[in-house]
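Thread amino acids onto this structure.
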């Protein structure tokens, strides 16, 4: 059950912060069989990147790129929601909106939130006439309403060798008394770059140098939404590669304000996870959330009335080999409802059905090339989504070729690289939430995907087992709704 929020009530008996209009919009869309039931998404219309993710007091604040009038990108505002546990969210009023005659007239693009000596402060990119410049806003009422700084933009103009039209997405942190910021951009000669700045007051910024520059053929044209933070005894830089392609990370050392990557990899190869944003919570955990885009046409989105979902919150850590360890946040376990497990080892078939499930399955193969699990299957198997490991190619796949009878939705497979040791079992932790599939494999590979089954009975779960595969364990839960 949704925990009661203890918030001040107004004379109408509703929370002074919560928007009753938002609840009505949510109620109107609740019957949509593709609308996720335990993932965060806006009351209606469009969301893209998460923004300003911060724990403030005992609450987590989440902002997001939001078009409040259409299920399509455009007229970008900052939507806002709050949660005590990263699971149940309450809508708050829109935090930032494009304002005519100011540097964010064309949209309030991505950014972050910081605690400036007790003052909640947002740093974001304002967009006007193809120019991008950095802006700031503060709140005087505990993060409910936000006032853009009268001196916006606080930073305009990219360094000469960088693309001024791609100069965005501030990510800010503090070292001793000084603030540091990375911005995403691209070099005029080609290749993405993350630029390092510093400031004493968050308002006057000095450019230091590129924190890292990428090679066009390896990591694309422009880097968006950079994140830079310590993890274990290393530092991590995460960038989203534009034109929207993949999410790349670098792990390395950081000394004298220079970052030297030692390893790198993809957080998402070609899937639905994009523009992730991290934050450090009060327990010292590095949390990460990303945007899960749609894979259907504008017409389909208009019929639905909404588009875009937030990923489940993840925690990041480093493996012994200095690789990224990606796990769903432990808080999500409160959503587990009715429990299912295999009756012993005598495996005969699954009686597990549902479109809001968490499944943990451990499979061991001696010979088989492909093995895994299928979800959202119709009884006659004309719709089915396969999630499997390909031993030879050393990769994990969400295979959408038969996920939907709708001819208009995307069927491309989503892929993550995964190399299992010779005697290592495949451990899949799969979250199914209507049109969302999130897969965590062996704590080190992650895929987010979207599927749109058409049949109301596409609810079955089946194992993909050939000779030589044993099921070491299978546990599953029906997941409770958060809305
Ligand atoms: N989306 C935002 C930009 C960001 C991009 C605009 C990434 O700030 O670079 O909505 O999806």
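Threaded sequence (483 positions):
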């Amino acid at each position: 059950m949704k925990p009661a929020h203890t918030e001040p009530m107004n004379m109408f008996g509703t929370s002074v912060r919560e928007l009753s209009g938002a609840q009505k919009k949510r109620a109107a869309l609740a019957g949509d069989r593709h609308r996720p039931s335990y993932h965060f998404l806006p009351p209606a219309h469009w969301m893209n990147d998460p923004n300003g993710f911060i724990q403030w007091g005992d609450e987590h604040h989440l902002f997001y790129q939001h078009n409040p009038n259409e299920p399509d990108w455009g007229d970008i505002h900052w939507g806002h929601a709050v949660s005590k546990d990263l699971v149940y969210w309450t809508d708050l009023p829109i935090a930032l909106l494009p304002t005519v005659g100011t540097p964010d007239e064309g949209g309030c693009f991505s950014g972050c939130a910081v605690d400036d000596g007790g003052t909640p402060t947002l740093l974001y990119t304002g967009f006007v006439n193809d120019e991008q410049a950095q802006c700031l806003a503060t709140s005087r009422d505990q993060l409910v309403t936000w006032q853009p700084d009268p001196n916006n933009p606080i930073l305009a103009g990219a360094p000469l060798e960088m693309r001024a039209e791609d100069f965005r997405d501030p990510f800010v942190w503090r070292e001793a008394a000084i603030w540091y910021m990375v911005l995403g951009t691209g070099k005029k000669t080609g290749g993405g770059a993350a630029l390092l700045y510093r400031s004493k007051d968050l308002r006057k910024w000095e450019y230091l140098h590129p924190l890292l520059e990428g090679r066009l053929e390896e990591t694309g044209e422009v880097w968006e939404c950079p994140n830079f933070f310590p993890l274990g005894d290393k530092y991590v830089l995460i960038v989203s590669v534009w034109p929207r392609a993949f999410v790349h990370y670098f792990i390395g050392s950081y000394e004298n304000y220079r970052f030297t990557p030692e390893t790198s990899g993809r957080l998402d190869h070609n899937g639905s996870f994009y523009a992730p944003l991290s934050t450090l919570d009060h327990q010292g955990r590095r949390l990460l959330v990303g945007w899960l885009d749609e894979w259907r046409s504008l017409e389909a989105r208009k019929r639905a009335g909404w588009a875009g979902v937030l990923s489940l919150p993840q925690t990041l850590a480093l493996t012994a080999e200095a690789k990224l360890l990606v796990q769903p946040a432990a808080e999500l376990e409160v959503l587990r409802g009715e429990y299912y497990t295999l009756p012993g080892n005598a495996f005969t078939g699954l009686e597990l059905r549902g479109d809001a499930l968490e499944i943990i399955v451990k499979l061991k193969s001696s010979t088989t090339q492909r093995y895994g699990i299928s979800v959202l299957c119709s009884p006659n198997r004309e719709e089915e989504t396969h999630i499997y490991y390909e031993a030879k190619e050393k990769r994990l796949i969400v295979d959408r070729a038969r996920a939907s009878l709708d001819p208009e939705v995307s069927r491309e497979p989503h892929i993550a690289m995964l190399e299992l040791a010779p005697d290592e079992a495949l451990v899949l932790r799969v979250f199914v939430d209507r049109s969302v599939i999130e897969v965590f494999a062996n704590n080190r590979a992650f895929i987010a995907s979207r599927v749109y089954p058409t049949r109301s009975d596409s609810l079955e779960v089946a194992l993909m087992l050939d000779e030589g595969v044993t099921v070491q364990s299978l546990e599953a839960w029906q997941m409770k709704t958060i809305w």
